[in-house]
Amino acid sequence: MIPIQIDSAWKGTSDCRNCGIRDMVLFADLNEQDFGAIHTPIDDLLFATDAALYTEGEKAVGVFTLRKGMVKLVRSTADGRARIVRVLKPGDVIGLEALATARYDCEAIALTSVSVCRIPLTVLHHLSTHSSRLHMRLMEKWQHALKDADDWLADLNFGTARQRVARLALKMRDPEQPNFTSFFSREDMGAMLDLKLETVSREVSALVRDGALKPGDKQGRRYEIVNEAFLRA
Amino acid sequence: MIPIQIDSAWKGTSDCRNCGIRDMVLFADLNEQDFGAIHTPIDDLLFATDAALYTEGEKAVGVFTLRKGMVKLVRSTADGRARIVRVLKPGDVIGLEALATARYDCEAIALTSVSVCRIPLTVLHHLSTHSSRLHMRLMEKWQHALKDADDWLADLNFGTARQRVARLALKMRDPEQPNFTSFFSREDMGAMLDLKLETVSREVSALVRDGALKPGDKQGRRYEIVNEAFLRA
DNA sequence: CGAGCGCTTGACCGGCGTCAACACCCGTGG
DNA sequence: CCACGGGTGTTGACGCCGGTCAAGCGCTCG
To answer: How far apart are the C-alpha atoms of A131 and A124, rounded to whole Å?
Structure first.
């Protein structure tokens, strides 16, 4: 694992009105008046794989919306090891907690190359008290984040190693090609499932042997889902 | 484990202005004008141990504030077993997710006898768009719930059985008597830590043998923390 | 005082962690 | 173009932790 590296690039300023994924995100149902109240520019940013969007405890300037790629939320436990608490996908908000505390509760690291836009806290604070439309959207995002956290706990940290890996395969399906799923480094997968990387590797191999998965590349990152029912059991 | 039983009693209507724990809860910094906008009565309710406040997927009428006692949030996993995702303490809000979806995401069951007040969704929806004070409080509650969920995952579902039980002991300290901690039935503890009840029992006994804990009653529910440093390691 | 429930303890076994060797992919430099 | 080396994934052998099954104990409440 490469240590933290800040490796981001400024891509320009967002035109939120014409955002390609606007219907998924916070500004989905803002009207012209709401947009007029945004006085601080919203930046588009790119992060390379393994770059940190922010670190645990860092003072927050804004909240991110994930446009493309995947981001892991990492928390270091009392005994020093790193634990991945969730993985965020396009449309998700990164660092919501900053709205309440102006600090980030855990570290956010790009799992792939990542495209995000950063919305300043001031903008959100101002809009959320003046626009009930944004207010409702915010509630939905909070609720989604909390449900996600609970799902993560209930689905991926329960049962045998085999079951956990199978559940992860189902959770990480490609939305566009539902019979394909993308994995991560075995070490990352271990930190998500509370397993050692060797165990993860063994169980992935076993699922391939049993005909539930089929390798889609040679690096062990992409697999085809052959037998979905098997993965569910 | 006793199956679900609805066992609640109406204790009256709350006088929120003079609530004993008002500074901890959602209505902490409402002003007289805000209170004037509450047109639906807020009920005080009592639930007996093992009673369900609501069940998973149930249509929600309101959100609860926990005044006294403890409540577990239970989720049934795909393979039928029950998983305790969090335990709520006085001052916490129960069923926040209903604000966004009007449904409860998981089951809430009283771990002790419990005193709550129920705030109708209509009241919160109306107030949160008209009072930036409540709005801010809501954010804080969401953030706290999310942090709690992540803590639960990172602290209690990681490491050896011994470590998990030790962490639970620290997490469940009595706020008033910090050298005392309260446990639950071994089965519930197992559902929190992802361990079997026999393992929990063994590890608790081991911690007592090693001089880290001392039994405070004969039912195995209350223990004195003798060696805090030992529990942290 | 007896029944029943929950907690404890023991014996045994299987799954996962540990340590280690090896295979494979890829980038680098000769 | 090939040789080399590091990083990552895979596979094997072995030991220990925790799951399983079962017996026994000690509350509490009829």
So the answer is: 10
Alpha helices in chain A (DSSP H): 32-36, 98-101, 121-130, 132-156, 161-171, 186-193, 197-209, 228-232
Task: State phi, psi for A227 to the nearest 5 degrees.
Answer: -125, 90
Return the CATH number of the domain spanning residue range B2-142.
Answer: 2.60.120.10
The residue with tokens 């926040």 is: B96
Would you call A102 an interface residue with chain B, using a CB distance cutoff of 8 Å?
no
Show pLDDT as tens, one digit a residue, over chain A (233 residues): 433 445 667 777 777 888 888 888 888 888 888 888 888 889 999 999 999 999 999 999 999 999 999 999 999 887 778 999 999 999 999 999 999 999 999 999 999 999 999 999 999 999 988 888 899 999 999 999 999 999 999 999 999 999 999 999 999 999 999 999 999 999 999 999 999 999 999 999 999 999 999 999 988 899 999 999 999 98
The amino acid present at B166, given as its one-letter code, is A
A24: left (phi over 0), alpha (psi -120 to 50) or beta: alpha
Q: Choose the mutation target among A74, A129, A134, A150 for the interface with B, i.e. most B CBs under 10 Å.
A: A150
A153:B153 CB<8 A: yes
Model confidence pLDDT, tens digit, residues B106-163: 999 999 999 999 999 999 999 988 888 899 999 999 999 999 999 999 999 999 999 9
The answer to whether residue B103 neighbours chain A at the CB level (below 8 Å) is no
Q: Mention every residue, 6+ apart, whose C-beta is less than 8 A from residue B136.
A: A100
Q: Is the CB of A196 under 7 A from strand C?
A: yes
Instruction: Look at the pTM and tell me if it is higher than 0.85.
Output: yes
Spatial CA neighbour of B63 closest among B7, B31, B101, B28: B101
Least Cα separation, residue B162 to chain A (angstroms): 13
Q: Measured between alpha carbons, how far is B169 from B224 in angstroms, rounded to an integer?
A: 10
End-to-end CA distance of chain A: 32
Whole-Å CA distances, A116 to A65, A119, A168, B46, B67: 5, 10, 24, 47, 41
Q: Please state the domain extents for chain B.
A: 2-142, 156-232
Torsion-angle region of A38 (φ positive above 0: left; ψ -120 to 50: alpha; else: beta): beta
For residues A11 and A177, what is the distance between their CA atoms, to the nearest angstrom? Answer: 28
Instruction: Tell me the angle at which helices A161-171 and A132-156 cross, rounded to the nearest 10 degrees.
Output: 150
CA distances from B216 to B174, B187, B224 (A): 13, 20, 6
CATH number of A156-232, picked from 3.30.720.120, 3.40.228.10, 3.30.540.10, 1.10.10.10: 1.10.10.10
